Amino acid sequence: MLKSLFDICLFELQLENETKKFHFIEMDLLIHFPRCGNQGKYLNYSVILIDRKKGATESGKLVKLAEILENPEFEKRYPHTVGYYKESSGEGAEFKPEFLEIRKVSTVEGFWLFLNAVDL
After folding, report:
1. Are 25 and 104 in contact (CB under 8 A)?
2. CB 52, CB 32: distance < 8 Å
3. Is the full-model pTM beyond 0.90?
4. Cα–Cα 20 to 30 A to 58, which of 20, 21, 93, 118?
5. Rounded to an integer, what distance in angstroms lies between the CA atom of residue 72 and that of residue 75?
C-alpha cells in the first residue's frame, strides 16, 4: 500500500523512469531526484541515495540532500566527478551508466549550477 505522496511519486517514476540521476564517481554514490515532491532549496530535497561501495540495494534509501552534501566525508573529498545519466546497464561491478553529461564539481555551488543546467 502506498503511504504518502512521495511513495505515489516513486511508484509513478518506476513506471515512467523520470528521475534525474547523478553518479558521484569517486565515491560511487548514486543520487536520484524524483520528478515530484520537491520544491524550494535543493538542500531540502528528498532524494534516493544508493551507496554502491556499501553494497546498497538498487532501491536505496530516502534522505534529504543536505544529509549527503553536509557530511564531512563528502565535503573533504572535493572536487567530485559527477555524471548525469538517465539509463544504465548492468548491476554491481557491471554497472555502466550512459552519461549525458559529466562535470568536475569543486564546490556545492558548482553542483547547484549542474542541477540548474539539467533543469532540475
Report:
1. no
2. no
3. no
4. 118
5. 5
